[in-house]
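REQUEST
  id: r-88c1
  op: predict_structure
  target: Large ribosomal subunit protein uL3m
  payload:
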Amino acid sequence: MVSSLAVDITPSSKAFKLFFNHEQIRTMSRVKRRTTHPPYWHVLKNNQRDDEKISSDNLRFVREVIQDKYKNKSPIKGSDLGIEKTEWDPKTKRSGVIARNIGMQHMWEKDGKKIICTVLQVLDNHVIRYVPPEEYANSVIGAKMFKNRKPLGCLVVGAEATNPDRFTRQYCSLFNEVGLLPKKRLARFIVTPNAALPPCTPLTAGHFVIGQAVDVYGKTIDYGFQGVVKRWGFKGGPASHGATKFHRRGGTIGTGRDKARVWPGQKMPGHMGSERRFNRGLKIVRINMKYNIVYVKGTVPGPTNSIVQIFDTILPRRKFTEAPPHPTYFPPEDGTLPQEDIWDSSLHVFGSPSISV
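RESPONSE
  id: r-88c1
  status: 200
  body:
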C-alpha cells in the first residue's frame, strides 16, 4: 500500500517560500560583481546616431550655435563665484578630482634612492551640482550610505568637455543650469557642508599640496578569463613523470566525506581583474601647475590611459595637520603666476647641482 502525500505549493505556503526564496538567492555571496551596463537610475548617455547624413552647411550652422551657447560661461576666478570663506577643521571632507593615468616615471631622492611614481593628469574638472545633505540622504545611494549616521552633502564633478552631438538630450540637460559643455566623465564626492562649492567652480592640480597623502580610486586591469595559475598563483602539476594534461590545473576542489560539496569562495578559474579598488595613503611628491599633473609615489589601480579619482586620504595617521587650500585652490587675484613645478624636499630636482662644495 502506497500512501500519497499532498504538498501545498501556493505562493503563501511555507514550501513555496522554502524552494522559491528569491530574496535569499539575491543575497548570496556568489552573485556577479561586475556589470557592463550603467545603473538604472543613470540618464541615457550615448547618442544613437542615425544613417541620415547632414550637409556641410547645416553642420557648420550647428557648430556655430553650440559655440554661441557655451561661450564664456565658465568663471575662472574665485572672486567671481562668491564663495563663502569658511574655516577648515580636521573633520572637513573636501571634494576630489577626476584624473587620467598617463604612465609611470622614476624619481630619485637626494640620497640616491630610486622610487616609482605614477603620473596623473587632472582633466578640466568643474563642479556640476551640489546636493545638500537633506536631499542626498533621500536618494537611492544616500539612503544606503547614511542609514545609521549623519548625512553629508554630495558634489557632482565633471571632466573632459566634448561635443554635445555625441550625447542624448537628457544627458545634455544635466549641464543646462551650469552653462558648460557636456562632460565625458561624472563623479560624486561626499563633502561636508563647509567644503561645498557652487557650480562652475574649476578644480585643478593646485587642489592638493606637496607631501599630502591621497587615496586613488579606479578600476583594475581587465585580464579576462584566467586559470588558477595566473589568477591565484597556484603551482600547478608536474611537467613530466607521468603528468598528462595536468600541468596548469587546480586539482581537487573538495572531497566526498565531511565536506561533500564545493564551499563558497573556492579558488577556481574565472574572470580576473576589472575590479574597483582603492590605493590609500599615496604621497604626492611633485605637482606641475602648468599641465595640471600630479606625481604620486607608488602605483594606482588600472592600466595606462584609465580614469581615476583622487581625494584626501581617510587614513587617520596620514591626514592633514595643517589647513590645505580650502575649499579649493584658486589662482592669485593679482594676476601673479604660481610656481610652475613644485617638488618635494626629499627629491633631487633635475637640473640642480647634485654636489655642493
